[in-house]
Amino acid sequence: MKFHRINSLEDYKAQYQRSVENPEAFWDDIAKTFTWQKPYTKVLQWDFQHPSIQWFADGELNITENCLDRHLPHKANQTALVFEPNDPSQKVRTYTYAELHQEVMNFSQVLLNQGVLKGDRVCIYMGMVPELTIAVLACARIGAIHSVIFGGFSAQSITDRIIDAQAEFVITQDAAYRGNKIIPLKPVIDDALLKCDFVQKVIVLTHAKEPVNMLKGRDIWWEEEMELVGKANVPPAIMNAEDPLFILYTSGSTGKPKGVVHTCGGYMVWANYTFEQVFQYQENELHFCTADIGWITGHSYIVYGPLLAGAKTLMFEGIPTYPDAGRFWDIVEKHNVNILYTAPTAIRSLMTFGTGVFEGRDLSSLRVLGTVGEPINEEAWNWYDENVGKKNCPIVDTWWQTETGGVMISNLAGITPSRPAWATLPLPGIQPLLVDEKGIENTEINAETGFVHGNLCIKFPWPGMLRTTYGDHHRCYTNYFATYENLYFTGDGAYRDSEGNYRITGRVDDVLNVSGHRIGTAEVENAINMHVGVVESAVVGYPHDIKGQGIYAFVICTDHTHDKDLIKRDINETISRLIGPIAKADKIQIVSGLPKTRSGKIMRRILRKIAEGELQSLGDTSTLLDPGVVEEIVKFRV
Length: 638
Ligand code: WTA
Description:
Blueprint: H1 9-21, H2 23-31, E1 44-47, E2 52-55, E3 60-61, H3 63-67, H4 72-75, E4 79-84, E5 93-96, H5 97-113, E6 121-125, H6 130-142, E7 145-148, H7 155-165, E8 169-173, E9 175-178, E10 181-184, H8 186-192, E11 201-205, E12 219-221, H9 222-229, E13 239-240, E14 244-250, E15 258-263, H10 264-279, E16 286-289, H11 296-308, E17 312-316, H12 327-335, E18 339-342, H13 344-351, E19 368-372, H14 378-388, E20 395-398, E21 432-435, E22 452-458, E23 468-469, H15 473-481, E24 488-496, E25 502-507, E26 511-514, E27 517-520, H16 521-529, E28 534-544, E29 548-557, H17 564-578, E30 587-591, H18 604-612, H19 628-635
Parallel strand pairs: 4-17, 6-7, 6-8, 7-14, 8-11, 11-12, 16-17, 16-18, 18-19, 19-20, 29-30
Antiparallel strand pairs: 1-2, 3-13, 4-5, 9-10, 14-15, 15-23, 21-22, 22-24, 24-25, 26-27, 28-29
This protein binds 5'-O-[(S)-ethoxy(hydroxy)phosphoryl]adenosine.
């Protein structure tokens, strides 16, 4: 069977069935359509017990050849990348496929000149500027492993990531524009590198023209190096399909963030396949994903997915509320955006500005809307549908994770039905199931709700799944494959209806989802505990109207703490310094004790209920070491 774009619900069902019954033939048909330097002979080998997943293992390729070179014969002069700057009065920059190809080769040469070798890790800490996309692709072109760090992370977070990846090269910029603020980036890198003396070179792009310190012998300017190179011709490095393409750090329920590793072949196939199927991208359309390239959504649906498909992708430097809350709609009108992909938190925050901002703004170019990152509530879904889509654009609610590389469960725009707050059906190749605490599959429909409920697992590999956690394969096993035998565990809970549609309810582990950002409670607690005035802390999430979840911290302070307001401020500053402002607590309650079991375990279940305001259903507290603590905490709840 020749691979074709899914074109109806029946076609979806047929393709889904084939992907389950004959996965190797199914994926072979799709993978064959790419450019391989050497064709693979094996499609898949896998083992979830001792996690080892290999797709197209003996094939050789380069993802940038597929993103760029492959399109040149027929698309050289077509737009590949559109850059909308933070300040709407500044010039829009566009790159055709030929121009982007040339820029990527030029910067590849810069990297080669600095001694970057295939397999070396390169840390990229930049704002949303076109050079970020160029840097990412240049790494991929020469076979270096990029590790992009979101521009909002602190120096300490960068240090941790650079050490973990042993990244000897860093690419950054002087500063980034964000609304009416200028965010320094190079100074943060300077701080981060105080503890990373193995870093050889830092390449610095001038963007905001902010003064920076350049360290002799280590720091070099992007522009100067590019000028030295001129017009370069760098052929794509030949990569094995299973060679790492990138590392992206993400939070888990324990310890420090882990480096999720994606590989060249499988990720390529998955990013392209999901982009085309989910959004039903049509030739010449402009795709606007509002995520930051510092997160997986930006990797897969700003850079790789659209470029692999030969699409036009838009990068936006700024924020949705600058210069006013109609900025997204201005961008849609100005550039004739066809596909808009954003997060529920952005929708909820824009809802607070009312519908006046839509007046006089023409959104008729829109064909498809998407959401990602967290469960979308029905109110936000309907608002998006009515005001942005004018009830004329399918909304794809795409559930997936950093670890999955691309969309896993979603309706397909205009092809399979959408349903408010439901991610709906798994993509071909994805075999989800719901299990109970013990790992037994739940198939029984609950008479009251009409749904099956359970923890969401996947029982068969897909090309874009993570292969390991960098430097610590065992952690990959314990995080994803040890909870339930022979299953990949997502960390999410979900409902399924009798038709096989999924509704994701959110994390069931100690990971918070704050404005669509993944934050581990343990990470925040560790940061809070670093403060001299703190004895112990416990962090939980609670429902937040705009952010989805807010962070509630219960903190025991030392006896000498008198000024409570001051210490609360200090605690948030500590979090900002150690993780980044995105992890600041929304609420801090100073307590004299925490509810603990006799064996000393903090009863998070009770704290969660208190934070959520569910005071009637705290459950049995008699087994606690000191039940009185709960009363006190409830009384002084913030
Ligand atoms: C959540 C982002 C409900 C989920 C791509 C997942 C969602 C975590 C959805 C991954 C959705 C993502 N509906 N929940 N459509 N999409 N999530 O790694 O809890 O930053 O486990 O990847 O976001 O977040 P991550």
